[in-house]
Amino acid sequence: MKIRIIITLKKGVLDTQGKAIETSLQKNLGFAQISQVRQGKVVELDIAETDLDKIKNIVDEICDKLLVNKVIEDYKYEVIS
Known about the structure:
Layout: E1 2-9, H1 16-28, E2 40-46, H2 52-67, E3 73-79
Antiparallel strand pairs: 1-2, 1-3
């Protein structure tokens, strides 16, 4: 199954990249109505499994061991096909 993992900084963690994007949008490109920009990561992968409980366990393990810094990041995932 195709899985999309969305990784974002936790609330309260300073998002310097998001702030830089926000500043560029507002000041350089004239989008004054834009605010509260948060930047994250998206990882898509295929898992050769159909059992949703097993998929959840695999995704949790992948995120815990490699993709996510659980001190400053949160993640969620979705099955996309």
